[in-house]
Amino acid sequence: MQVEVLKSKLHQVTITEANLYYVGSITIDEDLMDAANFIANEKVTIVNINNGERLDTYIIKGKRGSGVICLNGPAARKCHVGDVVVILSYASMDFEEAKKFHPTVVFPDKDTNRLVR
Prior knowledge:
Shape: globular
CATH topology: Barwin-like endoglucanases
Order of helices and strands: EEEHEEEEHE
Oligomer: single chain
């Protein structure tokens, strides 16, 4: 049996840009992607703490060290610049493997979207 479990989480990052007329997706600073174990084109769920909206999209790499979290395309209507969001990804795995799995959870500075070291 396969189950879907939390693989990675960026907890409370701030939307820095919203680009309605882009092709779609979310742009994430590559440093944050590496820390959270995300890859380009990976499906993610975005949960907006400010308004309760949830949406699924895919990741585009953003400039490393920029702190960028930019919603693109129609998703830009679900969040405003300054909103705080949680970004989640999931993985399917065998039930017994899932019992032992530990997700990657990252708590960046939500004012700068930079890694806290």
